[in-house]
Amino acid sequence: MSDAKNDDGADGPLAAAQAALAAEHAAVYGYGVAGGRVAAARRPEATAAHHAHRARRDALVRTVRDLGGKPVAAEAAYALPFAVPDAAAAVRLAAVLEDRVAYVYSDLVRAAGGALRRTAAEALRESAVRAARWRGSGVPFPGLAERAGPAAGTDARAGAAR
Q1: Could you point out which of 5, 28, 47, 94 has its C-alpha 20 to 30 Å from the C-alpha of 103?
Q2: What pLDDT was estimated at residue 141?
Q3: Contact predicate 43/90, CB 8 Å
């Protein structure tokens, strides 16, 4: 996933919104996989997260259009960061998906202002809370800790939009 840059290399809300939209597409796909493998007791949580990401995705499509852009389309499939053969792997995948979404929303918070910034901050918070619930613990600075790369847990950008 690229950083939030305009065609001229400047940071901008349109590029950050496109990156968030791409991450939401990937999260919707990923929850389709995780939701099919997560234990029955956590299936309602996976379903709620799937619906939340679909709603954020749809809102971002409108946001990108409002900012004068053409919304990035969902890919037919996305590479998962690891195999998801069982419920434990599905829970790990859900946490990674939320970390990746938090990562791009932190860029949108930085790039945007006004209502869009508030919406991005809310989405960042929601993803951080879901990640903590899936993982069983939180991170000190959601959306930023992942930037340290694999040594910090997950590389939020790797495969997030592929």
Answers
A1: 47
A2: 59
A3: no
